[in-house]
Amino acid sequence: MTATDSGSPPRSALQPIVVALPGVNDNAPLFSQSSYSVDIAENNAHGALLLTVTVFDQDLGQNARLSFSILDREVQGSAVSSLVYVNSENGDLHAIRALDHEQGNVFQVQVKEAGITVQSSIVTMHVFVIDENDHAPALIYPAPPPDGVLQLSVPLSGWFRTPGASFIKWT
């Protein structure tokens, strides 16, 4: 601020004034990708890190603090929160338990990020559970007898069809 008098010669003084403007949380956080995808082998280790989300927020100070959480839904008869966990401070997504391809191989996990006020964003994560050969074959027809011994006559090689089954190659 400058003050000037009306004298001759005029005299003036200069005084700086500091105006503090409080920050406003006026920018929604932005995820680095519009969606995330990860492949994980079924029967994964408990607590396995699936992926980490990256978020940018143009606000400063308290308004730039981020918090991550799962928007809980039901997938294949289980709550998403019983399958995966997101670290609320850094966005790391972990498997809570071993995932099974036979129970469902794609999960859409939505992660919410929010600042001190209402600004937030949501991203979808696709977790693809890759099938492993973890189940032995089972004879379903004809049903094995109670003593567990079943005798069948089959050709030494070639194709044949069993009743109620599709064609099978035997070598």
Shape: rod-shaped
Question: How do the SSEs run, as a string of H and E?
Answer: EEEEEEEEEEEEEEE
Which regions contain 5 or more consecutive residues with pLDDT less than 50? none
Total E-strand runs: 15
Continuous helix count: 0
Membrane topology: Single-pass membrane protein
Domain Cadherin: 1-31, 32-139
InterPro entries: Cadherin-like_dom (IPR002126), Cadherin-like_sf (IPR015919), Cadherin_CS (IPR020894), Protocadherin/Cadherin-CA (IPR050174)
Pfam family, one: Cadherin
Structure description:
It is a single-pass membrane protein. By secondary structure, the chain is an all-beta fold. It has strands spanning 2-4, 12-14, 30-31, 35-41, 49-52, 55-56, 67-70, 74-75, 78-79, 84-86, 92-95, 106-114, 120-130, 158-161, 167-170. The strands form 6 sheets. A 4-stranded mixed β-sheet has the order 4-13-12-7, with no helix packed on it. The chain has a 3-stranded antiparallel β-sheet with strand order 5-11-10, with no helix packed on it.
